[in-house]
Amino acid sequence: MRIELVNRLLGALLPCCPTAALLASCARVQVPPGGPPDRVAPVLTAIFPDSQLVLPDLDRDVVFQFSEVVSEGGNPNFGLGTGDLEKLILLSPSDFVPRVHWRRNRISVSPREGWRPGLVYRVELLPGVMDLSNNRTADRTVVTFTTGPPLPGGVLRGMVVSWSNRRPVPGGLVEAVLLPDSLSYRTVADSAGRFELGPIPRGEYLVYGVIDQNRDSRHGQREEFDSVRVAAGRDSVGEIWAHRHDSTAARIAITEVRDSLTVGLTFSLTLNPYQRVPADSVRVLLLPDSVPVPILAVLPQAEFDSMFRARVAVYTTPAGRARADSARAAAAARARADSIRADSVARARRAAEIRIPGAERRLAATPDTAGRGPLLTKPALFEKLFIRLGEPLRPGGRYAVVVFGVETLSRVSGSSRAGFAGPAAPRTDTSSVRARPDTGRFR
Q1: How far are the Cα atoms of 277, 383, 385 from residue 273, in angstroms, in the given order?
Q2: pLDDT tens profile 173-211
């Protein structure tokens, strides 16, 4: 009754009051006051057209119909890909943002260039559709149909991983380009970084995994990505390790002297973790005569820490030697405890096999690190290299370092040069060698 009364009042005021007309045009659909709170997300009740159909003469939009009025969102859908509903629609294959229209309890979708004949279309509605009480849907819906060719049956499965932290990427964008037609099909990875793209046409694909930072379901130029080529007939993509791609070579950004035998180099870009820079690819020169300093090794930080820094700390300080002794004692105690535990477990298993003949021993399953820790399929990334010298640096000396052939993660190699100063010269305390005043006096 209250809503009908408001509508009657607005209808009476519209012919004579332009302000009332403006208010009516700006009115937004909201939940009527009163009644129990709505805590149920909208339910998808109908889809047009049905999935897995051949529609050669399609001239209508794809429609998703819900059980209640859904929200249009705060950002309008102007075809820029920034609208709230536009971000929830993935239409493939198409290089343009689709037309998305809101009609109370329906969302209609169509390609901006129109339905093209002879293609396999895939329309995916992502989770996140809201009702007027801000209840969101949690399921995704996929509609696949064709405008001429036979129904597809291909599926691609894999995972998007960020190489910078070696962890799966929730919501990573996946784009599969069909070769040689260059038709692209897109989807979004789940909360564990895994994806399943299908049904799509069978064939050879170039699959991209993108860290979609702005959530526009488009591959931006500055976004981290990588690609995997999948042969025809395969459905497993594996892990796609997304990383930053650069076309320039790495430069030495920072030089630091760790000690008299170690120089650290920090580069401007991430280096290729599979490359090991040989000692003859680096030159350290004492200026101004450019006298070469012998080099023993060039190592990334992880290898340097394990080989040199811990050893120097142990054998050069009393506290380090004490910690090393205690660590050795603790390690020996743990080894003895592990041996006792292993013997007891082995005896228990033998006893169980005797008691239950034919019983199979349970094997521990390999833990799945997805979502719980870094993946170890590829090495960790780094930007630092440490030069281990064959002779100490001269205190207060000036040096130049030149690195040849160092590769970035994008396999771009180059050379770089920088200068640095040797360790500071120690101060000489002259207080103990001052001449004593002459106190002797002849009388």
Answers
A1: 10, 9, 11
A2: 999 999 998 999 999 999 999 999 989 999 999 999 999
State pLDDT tens for residues 102-141. Answer: 999 999 999 999 999 999 999 999 999 999 999 999 999 9
Which helix (H) or strand (E) element contains residue 25? Answer: helix 18-25
SS3 state of residue 362 = coil
d(CA 399, CA 260): 13
Evaluate whether 48 touches 60 at the Cβ level (below 8 Å).
Answer: yes
CATH of domain 36-150: 2.60.40.3710
Cβ atoms within 10 Å of 132's Cβ, excluding its own:
16
Provide the residue count of the chain: 443
The CATH number that domain 246-329+379-425 falls under is 2.60.40.1220
What angle do helix axes 18-25 and 2-13 make, rounded to 10 degrees?
130
Distance, CA of 427 to chain centre: 50
Of 132, 160, 161, 155, give the one whose Cα is nearest residue 142. 155
What is the rounded CA–CA span in Å between residue 322 and residue 303? 24
Q: What is the dihedral of CA 266, 272, 275, 279, to 10 degrees?
A: -20
The CA distances from residue 62 to 48, 106, 123, 216, 422, in Å, are 6, 10, 8, 21, 70
Number of alpha carbons in the 13 Å side-chain half-sphere of residue 353: 9
Domain 152-245: give its CATH architecture.
Sandwich (2.60)
Q: Which tokens go with 79?
A: 């075809």
- Over the stretch 302-331, which tens digit does the pLDDT of each residue have? 888 887 765 555 445 566 566 666 766 776
Which two tokens mark 133?
């009480």
Boundaries of every domain in the chain: 36-150, 152-245, 246-329+379-425
Q: pLDDT at residue 334 above 80?
A: no
Determine the Cα–Cα distance for residues 389 and 339; give it in Å rounded to an integer. 42
